[in-house]
UniProtKB/TrEMBL annotation:
It comes from Mycolicibacterium fortuitum subsp. fortuitum DSM 46621 = ATCC 6841 = JCM 6387. It comes from the Bacteria. Pfam families: Usp. The lineage of its organism: Bacteria, Bacillati, Actinomycetota, Actinomycetes, Mycobacteriales. Residues 10-147, 159-296 form the UspA domain. This is UspA domain-containing protein.
């Protein structure tokens, strides 16, 4: 095992040999630079996979090969990070264990856990959907799924953070993180509340339900009040509020094309193995045009990483 991380707060990146994992490593490095923390690149070697391999090699020799491969994958990711952010400190390690439980355990010490958006074809790859679902349901902090075209500088140039808002505690915590992220980036914030799918066409005043204008005005006022509380804490962030309709994920994605980051809340850490991510987060990690941050309700927006 190489260069094991210490106890200092860092951004944890799962490295699996995919191009999207390299994107995640570079994204994490840029975020670490903003926060003046280090990046920890981790590859997880699953010993269980060796038990079902066919061929002349013993399980031990297969594991030795995978450990050697892990070193190569980590070195490749470290080079990508060094090229993008040469001043950021990078720690690398490979860990033997089941990928998801191991990554969840490692997330305890991380400010953020960052993963790519697609599955590698090589051994040791972990599907981003599985990672985001499991780490968000069982982990100890926010998870970022890095989406968007590889090396697309347009995402970095966008000046908006989008957050999904409702009356839940999870959304309240996500809003706190979203304001912090907007402040770090010098970006505006757009808070989006969706009223769900409604009958008729809201684009056509003649087809709108009679009660819609009054209901929309009420929801707009409630959203304005909710966001005003956070704006008072972050006067440097220009906040916009949008009340819209449709499924929440698609409502958020309508605004995401101008966003550098989407932030949504989840119910948080669960002890139940069958716990799954909500439909909104699940849709976003598969379809959003920019990175998605999933914030459990227990995660504190503490940039120092201290309790």
């Amino acid at each position: 095992m190489a260069n094991m991380a210490g106890s200092a707060p860092n951004l944890l990146v799962g490295v699996d040999g995919s191009l999207s994992a390299l994107d995640a490593a570079v994204w994490a490095a840029r975020e670490a630079e903003r926060r003046s923390v280090s990046v920890r690149l981790v590859h997880i070697v699953d010993p269980g996979e060796a038990e079902i391999e066919l061929g002349p090699w013993s399980q031990r020799r297969i594991l030795k090969y995978r450990e050697s491969r892990a070193v190569d994958l980590l070195a490749e990711a470290q080079l990508e990070v060094a090229a993008a952010c040469p001043e950021v400190a990078v720690e690398t390690s490979w860990v033997t264990g089941r990928p998801l439980p191991t990554l969840i355990a490692l997330s305890r010490q991380a400010l953020l856990t960052v993963v790519g958006s697609s599955r590698a074809q090589s051994q040791g790859a972990v599907h981003a959907g599985s990672v985001a679902v499991s780490v968000s349901a069982h982990g100890y902090g926010p998870v970022v799924v890095v989406r968007g075209a590889r090396n697309d500088s347009r995402v970095q140039q966008r000046r908006t953070v989008v957050v999904g808002v409702d009356s839940s505690e999870a959304a309240d915590n996500a809003t706190e993180w979203a304001f912090e992220e907007a402040a770090l980036r010098g970006a505006d914030l757009t808070a989006v509340f969706s009223c769900g799918e409604l009958p008729g066409s809201l684009a056509d005043p003649e087809a709108q339900p009679r009660w819609w204008p009054e209901y929309q005005a009420q929801q707009q006022e409630l959203l304005n009040q909710r966001i005003a509380r956070w704006s008072a804490r972050h006067p440097e962030v220009v906040a916009h509020c949008a009340v819209t309709t449709g499924r929440t994920a698609w409502a958020l994605m309508r605004y995401a094309h101008e966003a550098q980051l989407i932030v949504v809340g989840s119910r948080g850490r669960s002890e139940f193995v069958g716990s799954v991510l909500g439909s909104t987060s699940h849709a976003l990690i598969h379809h959003a045009p920019c990175p998605v941050m999933i914030v459990p309700s227990s995660a504190s927006a503490n940039r120092s990483g201290q309790p």
